[in-house]
From TrEMBL, chain A:
It comes from Prauserella halophila. This is Iron chelate uptake ABC transporter family permease subunit. InterPro entries: ABC_BtuC-like, ABC_transptr_permease_BtuC. The keyword Phosphoprotein does not apply. The lineage of its organism: Bacteria, Bacillati, Actinomycetota, Actinomycetes, Pseudonocardiales. Its main location: membrane. It is a multi-pass membrane protein. PANTHER family: FERRIC ENTEROBACTIN TRANSPORT SYSTEM PERMEASE PROTEIN, FERRIC ENTEROBACTIN TRANSPORT SYSTEM PERMEASE PROTEIN FEPG.
From TrEMBL, chain B:
Residues 30-266 form the ABC transporter domain. It is found in: Cell membrane. The keyword Ion transport applies. Its main location: membrane. This is ABC transporter ATP-binding protein. It is a peripheral membrane protein. It comes from Prauserella halophila. Keywords: ATP-binding, Cell membrane, Ion transport, Iron, Iron transport, Membrane, Nucleotide-binding, Transport. GO terms for molecular function: ATP binding. Pfam families: ABC_tran. It comes from the Bacteria.
Length: 351, 287
């Protein structure tokens, strides 16, 4: 028996004739990453300007504690932390899907313009309509989805190949950032401040609405990916071979790209365009699992850990001032990736 | 780059088996009827009606830009016919379901790209895709087909090596194993020898011949080298300007006249002293 074959195991549900394939290494890694993310979640609930010990946090979650403790933990920190996990997972999966389909590690929803679309939509709501809260979420969502649809439609014309998708996306993103700059210049000082925080990606003041947006998205997308995810194994072999191995891939490719765009759009609507996560989470995952393509579940866990860790750091490092989480993801994510790259080179794996 | 295993040793490994790969009971026929293929307004293959002999090796030859690779793409349904049709066992391929087609047609593209760092066995395993479903991601037949495909191509020992660390010859065998693991009725190979040195070209073609003899699978390949085509083809198809210029056994096709008309090259044709197949020798330009 060889290593890959030893690494692979199958879960059978004999009664229904179901067989699912898993990799030991990625299953273990995914579990560890989610446990870490859960640990950071527990810390996040307790730490801050109003410090609680872990036992107290648990007591408050269980329904005990004072009103003010309940307010801080359950109404303020919990939605924020849960949104962080969901958004991180969504960005991680979105990036992993796009990078594998395009067979290009530089592709991510931020690069192809989804985040730029969300930013433009949100900014339009802030500056032109003077909205906030739910209307801001809707504006971002509309912006991201319209952009995504435009990218897919234009790229589709010539078969959705990787490079075309990226180039079309970069073009659209450039136009949208011009639009965003224009809106910022037109806006008044207060609106600009408000917008700046949103444009960096922030998890401050997240509530039930934001949790519902991202949880609802994941509830729909995860089953879709359970069915479609396996096609990534042939899509990443290139156009010709993937068509030979699945008879016709246009529909599957389109569905997967749409899924990735929707994930990024919903995540951006919930937390703003948190930069770098979708790009770097799959890359970190790849370095942790050399010799195999990035599994979506592991990319989700990496993204979730990255965002919730960054948010905790953003809250604590410069307390009492809070940084927007988007200002920290790059600062934390990039060194992790660089470290893994340096180490990988030493032990003989290439980029 | 790793040192190449010499063709001679890899070949002896492969002559052992292939018996475990299921041989097609009756070989599949592949043919076209008035097939026209086009990129936009440019008709690259025009009104081609060709019948690929079942269970044999057919080699398509032609000058650069003659439409030979396009014809192969049409046979693989990578391009939809502008006019006419491609028939698999007499049925219009355009009407076949995606999964059915994927189970019946195997392809080795010209420059396949392996995802970064994946191992040989992972790559070969992906050939099983058309036989799997999201709820049935593995069966015993998958393990058996993967093992047999790697053994038949002599790469069992390389199973855990990353594909990007293999030599050109080994890599081409890995891609061939992927197509074998798919267990298709028809194998289509687009210039499989292009980036190989002569020894590995011969090695790969010997392997294909051996597999064809054991499995009886209909095989179509595009080759550049006329003399190798002549040696390994049962049936030779010469393409010129998108049309069939000549087809038949190499001895009938490889004549000075045909070569002159297809390649605009003046040649003498002699018989290969080793195999008796024709060899084309380009005439030197007078100087």
């Amino acid at each position: 028996m060889t290593a890959t074959r030893r690494d692979t195991f199958h879960v059978r549900i004999a009664r229904h004739g179901l067989v699912f394939r898993f990799s030991r290494r990625s299953t273990v890694l995914t579990s560890v990453l989610w446990l870490c993310a859960g640990g950071v979640l527990a810390l996040s609930l307790g730490l801050g300007e109003f410090d609680l010990r872990l036992a107290d946090t648990l007591r408050v979650l269980g329904g005990g504690g004072t009103l003010i403790e309940y307010d801080v933990v359950v109404r303020d920190r919990l939605p924020r932390a849960v949104t962080a996990l969901g958004v991180g997972a969504a960005f991680g999966v979105s990036g992993a899907i796009l990078q594998r389909i395009a067979a290009n590690p530089l592709v991510s929803p931020d690069v192809i313009g989804v985040n730029a679309g969300a930013s433009f939509g949100a900014l339009f709501v802030i500056t032109v309509l003077g909205g906030a809260g739910a209307s801001l979420v809707l504006g971002a969502l509309a912006g991201a989805l319209l952009t995504g649809a435009a990218i897919v439609l234009i790229a589709l014309n010539h078969g959705l190949s990787g490079y075309r998708l990226v180039l079309v996306g970069i073009g659209i993103a450039a136009m949208l950032s011009s639009g965003t700059s224009y809106l910022l210049i037109q806006a008044d000082y207060r609106q600009v401040l408000n917008a700046a925080s949103w444009l960096t990606g922030s998890l401050a003041n997240r509530g039930t609405l934001h949790v519902a947006v991202i949880a609802g998205t994941l509830a729909v997308v995860v089953p879709v990916l359970l069915v479609l995810g396996r096609h990534l194994r042939v899509l990443e072999l290139g156009d010709d071979l993937s068509r030979a191995l699945s008879g016709g891939t246009r529909r599957i490719r389109l569905s997967l790209i749409t899924t990735a765009v929707v994930l990024a759009a919903m995540a951006t609507a919930a937390a703003g365009p948190i930069g770098f996560v979708a790009l770097v989470a799959p890359q970190i995952t790849r370095r942790l699992l050399p010799g195999r393509p990035v599994p979506l579940g592991t990319a989700a866990a990496t993204g979730a850990l990255l965002v919730i860790g960054s948010d905790l750091a953003a809250r604590l490092l410069f307390a009492p001032t809070e940084l927007p989480v988007g200002a920290v993801t790059g600062v934390i994510g990039a060194p992790v990736l660089l470290y893994l790259l340096a180490r990988a080179n030493r032990i003989g794996h290439t980029g | 780059m790793n040192p190449d295993s010499t063709p001679a040793t890899t070949l002896s490994a492969t002559t052992l088996s292939a018996g475990t790969l299921s041989a097609s009971a009756t070989a599949t026929t592949l043919s076209t009827s008035d097939l026209t293929l086009a990129y936009g307004d440019r008709h690259v293959v025009r009104d081609v009606s060709v019948a690929v002999p079942p269970g044999r090796i057919t080699v398509i030859v032609g000058a650069n830009g003659s439409g030979k690779s396009t014809l192969l793409r049409g046979l693989a349904r990578l391009m939809a016919p502008r006019r006419g049709s491609v028939l698999l066992d007499g049925r219009d391929m355009a009407r076949l379901g995606a999964r059915t087609l994927a189970q019946r047609l195997g392809l080795l593209p010209q420059q396949p790209l392996a995802p970064d760092g994946i191992t040989v066995s992972d790559l070969v395993g992906r050939g099983r895709h058309p036989h799997q479903r999201w709820f049935r991601q593995h069966t015993e037949a998958d393990s058996a087909a993967i093992a047999a495909a790697m053994e038949a191509t002599g790469i069992t020992d390389l199973a855990e090596r990353p594909v990007d660390e293999l030599s050109g010859g080994q890599r081409q065998r890995a891609w061939l194993a992927l197509a074998l693991a798919q267990e298709p009725d028809v194998m289509l190979l687009d210039e499989p020898t292009t980036y190989l040195d002569l020894a590995h070209q011969v090695d790969l073609l010997e392997l294909l011949t051996h597999l064809n003899a054991t499995l009886g699978r209909t095989t179509v390949l595009v080759l550049h080298d006329l003399n190798l085509a002549s040696r390994y083809a049962h049936h030779l198809v010469a393409v010129k300007d998108g049309r069939i210029a000549a087809e038949g056994p190499p001895a009938d096709v490889l004549t000075p006249d045909t070569i002159e008309s297809v390649f605009s090259l003046s040649c003498a044709v002699i018989n290969d002293p080793l195999t008796g197949t024709p060899i084309a020798l380009p005439r030197p330009q007078p100087r």
